[in-house]
Amino acid sequence: MADIADERPDPDALLKTLDAAERQAVRGKLRVYFGASAGVGKTYTMLAAARAQAAQGVDVLAGIVETHGRRETATLLEGLPVLPLKDVAYRGHVLKEFDLDGALQRRPALVLVDELAHSNAPGSRHAKRWQDIQELLAAGIDVWTTLNVQHLDSLNEAVGSITGVRVWETVPDDVFDAADEVMLVDLSADELLRRLKEGKVYLPEQARHAASNFFRKGNLIALRELALRRTAEHVDDDVQAYRRDRAIEPVWRTREAIVACIGPDADAEYVIRSAHRMSQQLDCDLHVVTIDTPRAAPPAPAEIERLQHSLALADSLGARSETLAGGDMVDAVVRYVRRHNITKAIVGRTRAGGLQRLRPSLSAFLTAVMSPGWLWRRHSFADMLAAGCPEIDIIRLGAPPIPARAPVGRHPIAAGRRAGPADDERGARPLAGYAWALSYCAAATALSALAFPALHQTNIVMLFLLAVVAVALRHGRGPAALASVVSVGLFDFFFVQPLSSFAVSDVQYLLTFAVLLGVGLLIGQLTAGLRLQAQASVKREADARSLYEFARELSSALLPEQIVALAGSFVHATFGSRCALYILGLDDRLRLAPPVDGEMPAPASALAQWVHDHGQPAGAGTTTLSNTDLLYMPLKAPMRTRGVLVLAAPRRSLYTHPDTRRQIEAYATLIAIALERLHYVEVAQQALVSMESEKLRNSLLAAVSHDLRTPLTSLVGMTDTLTRQQAELPAGVLDTVRAMRDQAQRMHALVANLLDMARLQSRDAPLRLEWQSIEELVGAALAAMREPLAGHRIEVDSLSTLPLVECDGVLIERVLCNLLENAAKYTPPGSTLRIHASVHEAEMHVAIADNGPGVAPGAERRIFEKFTRGERESATPGVGLGLAVCEAIVAAHHGRIWVEHAPGQASGAQFVFSLPLGTPPDIKPETA
Asked: Which one of 245, 310, 508, 523 is at 20 to 30 Å from 578 when CA atoms are compared?
């Protein structure tokens, strides 16, 4: 009956599966055409499959398809119904976007939505296109889309480090993992480069730049590997889901995984390290399991210490370690292997599993008897595991070349309120249990004497067995074994002829004694084992309840002081230890948070800083400064480390017990998440205040600047009129008029910068994006700055071969003018200014270099702040707005600006700004 109950499906799991299946039935299906980079043929493949669906009568609608000017792709789009795009007004321009409402109203069976990672124009219902797709799927419409590997959140940084280009449009991995189908569109690097040269990916000019930057062969090979691996992970998830849905037990060898089976043996660390090396060679997951089976005698402290040290080693190597409970070791491992689809099991040779080399002792004999199938299982654990799970590989390691020794210098596990089962057997008062065992046996003897001879000896034996069970239930294995032996002696002395003697008149009573002793020992050990398992279950339930209550209380905390108080009370209630918290402030400095428990030893701030910087625990129970009495745990939140938890435990054994360490880590994680939540609340409040103050300041600047602009323009005009009048002015008056004109023009430029800054930061300045030649923009800026640059030598590299960039020509010209004016002001007359530009990956870099004094170290970012100047006290005119305006304009174009040391010169600065490259329109040659 037990086997039938074990095989019965979990009703809750069945209901959950049915509910998920019901939701999935009304939801649309998502198919992602996944590729390593642009040009592999994702859109082409999607359109070809869509035409095949349309030919079978499926209602297919092309919601939005980007052909990128490729004739073959555009040809496949012909004949498919195309949804008209929606016009979205943005900054004076009309942008074309996917019409989500139109698709929902049309309700086709299948809609094609290209470029999953696309960002919608401001003013759209959703910020991202993948959110549009989620709404389509919720409406029951199937969606096909495309995605490149660099747009996945988890791989974005890795791709950026390989190619040197970070893309800002990303898709959460959850969206990709939830896709019903992932179709990998693969192309070799050589074939993709050939397509690039043939102009099937980009236009010829862009293709040349791409081939020398992003589309290098090494980059394409690495991206292809990432795409293949990510697709394999998605397929592996599908395999696991299929196995779970259909309750398939046998292991499917679709992906390698290794499990190392260890016990409290001296070679457990050797088994773990060997398994870790093999997992590294196979590039697969590693699991480490140990089996907690009922034993006739509790494990020795040295065995517990070795096992805990081995599990800590597994955790440090990145393995997934678990302690399996069950009466049958083989059955427990087989269930674990099949649940996790593990293909290889590694066991040691000297002592396999938990049934070790049995010594000729009573406890060893009882341990064997308590194991299921002890009469017929005479093989090693490896042989039994191979027979129980024939579909996996069993690897039995050779004996270690040097016999392992127990770790030196580690404290034994002392008894305490969170001690393990072994400590339970070696409690504070071990002799009391044995005294109670004798008392129970005396009570059973007294009851039997009152009932004898009314009760036969067979029934009297039952009273003694009842005493053994009571002793095992209340006092453990050792007293139960003593009660078994004493019960046999008392039964023989008081109730077997001849009475009051240990002599036996009937030989048959020897069998009775043997059976009574064996059954008493066996029942006592089983009862004690059940008692320990019940205690362990109660402990696990208490741990889970305390974690739940702690998380619930932390969710309502609004101040760091509340988190500190909650952490102190819960940690003390759970572990009996005092604690302190170091919290990271907004200035990224670690501070000891009040209130600090007066009974706690003073923590070391330097060690807390080290733990925060390295993200590793230190102190007692670790390998770093283990001689201290405090344990320092980093508070790792999802975004970053938020502080350090310092624990002062009443005993050092609390730090070394694996279960307790995992519990401490869980508490530290909850504290870190609560601190991060408060941090972002504070950041949001400060951002709101800053936005309001900035908005007020911009409004004041705009108002003042607007009122100054008209009189300044009039003043410049009047000075021009005076200098051009027919009557010649005296030389002194003429110089004064020219000085007035120069100052008025400088003031006019300052007011223009103020107005531009106010408009850009309030986002009221629409960008007039047009395809511009950087050569023409540089020429216009040099013409406008003719007078300020009159005393400098200008060198301009060839810019005619550069591609067009989509930008606001007036604003980019302002950037160039401000950078040229800044260089002219801070370099002596006669200095050389050099202007050059180049293409890097998917960006154009424009640089202006000078041979002046350069920028002071540490001020590279500060000089781009508003009202910040290179020199605090200087005769150079200006208020420090020019570079701030440049940064605002470039940022509005999704570019960057920075300053660096002028290359190839002893001194000087080079200001560089980047603009993203797009796909310029085809320029048709003029016909004669």
From this structure: 310
The residue type of 895 is G
| Centroid of chain to Cα 819 | 41
CB atoms within 10 A of CB 730: 8
For residue 928, the model assigns a pLDDT of 47
SS3 content of the chain, % helix, strand, coil (to 5): 50, 15, 35
Nearest to 607 by CA among 634, 585, 586: 634
Asked if residues 288 and 320 have their Cβ atoms less than 8 Å apart, the reply is: yes
pLDDT number for residue 750? 65
425 and 476 in contact (C-beta within 8 Å)? Answer: yes
Q: Which residues contact 241 (CB under 8 A, 6 or more apart)?
A: none
The distance from CA 557 to its chain's CA centroid, rounded to whole angstroms, is 25
Query: What size, in residues, is the chain?
Result: 928
Q: Are 293 and 372 in contact (CB under 8 A)?
A: no
Of 278, 273, 260, nearest to 352 by C-alpha is: 260
Tell me if 563 sits within 8 A of 675, measured CB to CB. Answer: yes
Taking only the tens place, the pLDDT of each residue in 389-425 is: 888 889 888 877 655 554 444 433 333 333 344 444 4
R_g of the chain computed on alpha carbons: 39
The pLDDT of residue 874: 46
Full strand arrangement of the beta sheet holding 181-184:
60-64, 110-113, 142-148, 30-35, 181-184
- How far is CA 511 from each of CA 492, 503, 514, rounded to the nearest angstrom? 12, 14, 5
**Would you give the DSSP letter of residue 41?**
S
Q: Name the token pair of 61.
A: 């609608």
Name the DSSP class of 128.
B
Token pair, residue 558, equals 């609004």
Beta strands 93-97; 344-347: pairing state? unpaired
Beta-carbon contacts of residue 29 (< 8 Å; ≥ 6 apart):
137, 142, 143, 180, 181
Which tokens sit at 159?
């791709």
Which of 129-143, 157-171, 182-196 has maximum average pLDDT?
129-143
Checking if the pLDDT of 213 tops 90, the result is no
Tokens standing for 196?
């690039």
* Distance (Å) of CA 296 to CA 34, 367, 509, 695, 845: 58, 5, 26, 76, 76
Residue 210 contacts residue 216 (beta carbons within 8 Å): no
Side chain identity at residue 260, one-letter code: A
Among the listed ranges 59-63, 282-286, 289-293, 469-473, which one has the minimum average pLDDT value?
Answer: 469-473
Round to whole Å and give the CA distance between 85 and 89.
Answer: 13
Q: Mean pLDDT throughout 535-557?
A: 85
Give the tens place of pLDDT for each residue, 664-718. Answer: 888 999 999 999 888 888 877 777 777 776 676 666 666 665 566 667 677 777 7
Residues 342/392, Cβ–Cβ less than 8 Å: yes
Amino acid at 878: G
SS3 label, residue 395: strand
Strand residue runs (E) in 36-106: 60-64, 86-90, 93-97
Write out the two tokens for 518. Answer: 């064996």
865 in Cβ contact with 904 (< 8 Å): no
Q: How far apart are CA 568 and CA 578, in angstroms?
A: 7
Using the Cα atoms of residue 800, residue 806, residue 808 and residue 814 in order, give the sign of their dihedral.
negative
Using CA atoms, how far apart are residues 532 and 424, in angstroms rounded to an integer? 8
Q: What sign results for the dihedral spanned by CA atoms 654, 656, 658, 661?
A: positive
Residue position matching structure tokens 């310029």: 920
- Using 50, 70 and 90 to split pLDDT, how confident is the model at 351? very low
Q: How far apart are CA 875 and CA 376, in angstroms?
A: 99
- Run of H or E including 531: helix 508-555
CA distance 478 to 338: 37
Q: Which residue has the higher pLDDT, 118 or 376?
A: 118
Q: For residues 854 and 907, is the Cβ–Cβ distance under 8 A?
A: yes
Backbone phi and psi for residue 346, each to the nearest 5 degrees, phi listed first: -115, 130
